[in-house]
Structures are given as structure tokens and as C-alpha cells.
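Work Package 3 (structural annotation) set out to generate three-dimensional models for the target panel prioritized at the project kickoff. During this period the team completed the workflow that converts sequence records into C-alpha cells, so that structures can be stored uniformly alongside our sequence database. As a representative example, we reproduce one entry of 652 residues exactly as it appears in the project archive.
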Amino acid sequence: MEDKMKRMRELVELLNRARRAYEQEDKEIMSNYEYDRLYDELQGLERELNTTLASSPTVNVGYEVLSELPKERHERPMLSLDKTKDVERLKEFLGSQKAMISWKLDGLTIVLTYRGGGLEKAVTRGNGEVGEVITNNAKVFRNIPLHIPYEGELVLRGEAVIGYRDFERINAQIGDVDAKYKNPRNLCSGSVRQLNNEITAKRNVRFYAFTLVRAQGVDFHNSRLYQMEWLKDQGFDVVEHHPVTKENIENEVEWFAGHIGENDVPSDGLVLVYDDIEYGESLGTTAKFPRDSFAFKWADEVRETTLLEIEWSPSRTGLINPVAIFEPVELEGTTVSRASVHNISIMEELELGVGDRIQVYKANMIIPQIAENLTRSGVKDIPESCPVCGGETRIEMENETKTLYCTNPGCQAKHVKAFALFASRDAMNIEGLSEATLEKFIMHGFVKDFTDIFHLGRYADQIKEMDGFGEKSYVNLQNSIQNARTTTLPRLVYSLGIPNIGIANARMICRALGNQPERIMDATVEELSAISGVGEVIACTFVDYFAGEDHRDLFRRLLDEVEIPAEEEPEGGRTLEGMNFVVTGSVSHFANRGEVKEEIEKRGGKVTGSVTSKTNYLINNDVNSTSSKNRKAKELGIPIISEEEFLRLLGS
């Protein structure tokens, strides 16, 4: 008895630590598979001992939130769902009742309140009793209606999610995190709870309603299914759902299982809720679970295989992630040969060594993970040098997690953003070179400095075999690289990533120095400071950059790779000299706002991001818009002109 009680206390501590790390720190210290296994063990001990500790995760739902967002108590607690992996348990739950089955989405649960047809409030689930008010953020979700036909009080619940495609895109581009997000749920959680909703707006968060809590004065015919149709009529996206009975539940579970692989929205199971609202509510709740609904998690398809190697994958933060490479196995209809292990702590927990027999599965039927190590030979051969740069590595402890870092500040993997800037639209404009792709090229040793990008043809066969590449994408990338060989000197200078040197400053400097590369490398602080718009700070950083022989050598080698045609004076000359513009909204006569900016700067003008008293014109095709920029321009008496008027201004 004493040993079992001790084990129960150990499990409570371990599971709470794992959940705290996952929910509040966006870190993963054990796999989902291991968490579920330990949770089931704890439940078994609690039943056997007839004892439940106050801090047990089986009775406490969630943790207190840690952000500075306002807190609000829910009208009634938001409980977890009882769960099973057995379809027979669902049949038992259904009995003679009709129910609704739907995806159990893996994001952040949100409660929305509408009054008078408008969105009044949005609150996160939080710990189930107290959530965070995120109304301003909800207003910039991609698909939430700000106004609806129904004008009474409406309260509903749903899941805020970020799809896999957006997750990959954002993870490749995001620049304000220490490391890439591990999964869409963590990214969504951070996005929904931003203090600045401009960041939320860029993250493509979507909301899917799954429960109507209250709508006064509406007859829902005592049906959850009817409620979902009504919510759709109000403009909400609702979670995909089907009617179900005991007779067809197996077929429905099979249908959802067959479609999860093509579903862009993350899901970690299914939810079953009685269609009969009054019957469901009459059942009440247990201390933790409502009695009218049940969660279903698929029994994981597990395959046994052999661990062939641990591949160490460096990132831009210096973090070196272990990736397990194993003999290929078929899982959920696809061939799988690799799985992220996340950190050294998980490796040690699994006692993972090359040659071990391991069991692998797909978390949520999507993400390959290691379930168990059958032979447990132990962790060895943690690299003492970075696989990219050869620099010394160091093991660090962060939030009780062991991680491996590269200590070399010059490691190419840490400078992926510099390579991304080099390839960006205003610089060399090489399409197909995302940060994610550049990271792969750097990790494989294909790219060590900027000039290597022009010689990726050396690795054609390897690139075509990489994930996400093939003959067509490789040819498209090569075409884009060849197109980039014809460029302008300002673009080339900007692409170097010199501190404080944007494309506008690069144009001013190059023009003032006669577009002569040697003059650019040998410019003095006095010479640059004399250029209108270039102050001493910019002049010093520019001169300091070219004082380094390695930078001069790189610039010369880049000049050998590109062709720079003589810059033609724009027709009509520098007619916009000394004028300040702000460009907003969509454009139709130019490919994008960047081209408008380039046209202005070519003629001596300047483009800024905000309207001030120094602005001469605001360019906006929607001249009657009530946007903040238009309002500010009207307050200051600054002309708002359309694209057509701007083109006439150029011709005047």
C-alpha cells in the first residue's frame, strides 16, 4: 500500500509538471503517448486505493494563466470530457440516443458573447473557471463574424486553431521567437493571447464553433444538430459534425479516421454529445466531466522498428534538435522513417541509443513520435561539435529540460535570417528560398555564404530528393536564381544586411556615389554624412561594415556573380525630390506597394509607414476609407490621392 501511494504521488507530480510545461511554457518534456500511459496508471491507482489527491490532474482542470491579459470568471465551470479509445464504450454511452459526433479540435477553447448583433466579449477557457479576455484578438481572427443577424444575447464556445499549412508557413517566417513552435496548438495559444492584436492578425487564426451555450428566445427544437445549423446561418464556421446512433457509430469513427490525414485543422480525436438537449442537461455532471458528452481518441497504430541514427539538426537560435532516424515503417497509410525527439531529456527518459528496437506511432494520426524503447541501450555520442559549423556545443538546462546548443556565434545556422534577407523581394528577389528551405540547405552544407546560393546546381540530385522538392520546384528555384543575377547595385548593397541600411538608404548612397562599387567600398563617414537623408549613425555603420576585409571580399565575389545594367534616369527626372509619401491599401496599376515605393524613391521621394505633419501625400485607392491613416491625413489636411492621381503626378 505504501509503495502504491508513493507511486501515485510521483505520478501526480510528474504529470502536473508535464502539463504545466506544455500548457504554460509551450515545451514538451514527454510524448503524448507517455502522458496518456502514466495518466491511465494514475487513474488505476486512484480507483484501487479509493484515494484522489487534491492536486491530481484527474480532478483539476488546467492551470492559472500567466499573461497580463484581464481575467474573467466563467458563468459556469468549463469541464473536461471523459475519454475512451474503445468504440464499444461509445456504443454503451449512446444506448438508444441519437448524438452528434465531431472533430475534437486541438487549439485553444474560446467563449464568445454577442449582444445586439455585435461581438461583445471573447474569453479563453483558462483553467476552466477563470479565463483571459481576448476580445480585441478575437476580432482579427480570420473567420469570426463581428456582426450577426440575431440581436439577442448569444453565448457560444468554439476552438481557435491554426492549420498545418499556416503553421509551416508561419514557423518558417516568424522572427520573434527563440525557437520554432513544436506544433500548431502551441503557436495558436501564443497567437490568441498576444497583447498586440496586430501580431494575432498575421497568424491566420480561425474559429470553429462546437457548442451553443445560450441564445434567448430561439426554438432549437431540442436538438444540438439544429443548433449547429442555426450557428452556420448566423455566419459562424462550425466544427465538422455528423448525426450518429449506436448502429452506425463504428462506420462514423472509421470515416473520421480515414479523413484526418487530409484535414488541415489539427485534431486529437472526436467528441460525442447527445442530440437531445434536455436529456443531456438532465444528467448533470460529475466532479470533472459532463455526463452528456464523451471524447474518443484513436488507439494509436504502433509499429516496431530499429533506430539507425540520431541526426542533430541545428536551428537559428543555436538549439540543436535530436531527430530519430529509423528503418522505414508504414503508419496510418504513409511510410515513416524519422521522428523528432525534441531534446536530450526525452532521449534520456527513453534511454535511446542507436541500434535499439523502438515502437513508433503518429500523434493525432499526423506527427511521428517514439512511443517506447524496447531495448534501452542508453544515450551516448551527444555531439561535442556543431554538425554545421564544427563549433563547440554545450548542454544547458532550461525549465527542467536538457537541450544542446552550438556556442559559435558565427554558425551559419544562426544566420538564416541574413540569408533570408539576401533572398528577399527588395534584395535579390529569389523566389522559393524560404527560411525553412535555407535552414535545410545550410544544415546539409550546401550554403556557407551568399555566393553559394548561385551554385546550388552542384547539389541538384540531393535537393531534388529533399522533402518538399522535386524536379519542378528545383527548376523553378534555379530559374529564380538565374533571374536574380541581373540586379541593381542598391539591391545588392541592401542584400548584405548592413545594420541601419534599408533599400531606400541603399538607393540614396549608391546614387550619390555614382553607382560605382569601388567608391561604395571606400566611402568615408564624411562623404556619406553629406548625403541628404544619411546621418552620421548610418554613415558609421556603413563604413564599419566595409572596413572588414571579409566583407569586402564577399562583396567583390558577389559582383562577379551578378550583372548590374547602367541605371537609367527616370523619365521626367527626380521630380519628387524632398517629398514624403505614405502608401496604403491595395494597388492595381503596380504589382504591389513595393513597386510604388520604388517608383517614388527613384524620383527622389521618400516613403514612410505612418502619416505625420511632414507627409505630402497619402496614396490610397479608397480615398473615402475610414481607416486610421485616412482619418489622420484628413485631420492634418494632407491630400489623399488615388493611384491614377499619383500616376498623373508622375507625368506632370
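The chain has 24 helices and 22 strands.
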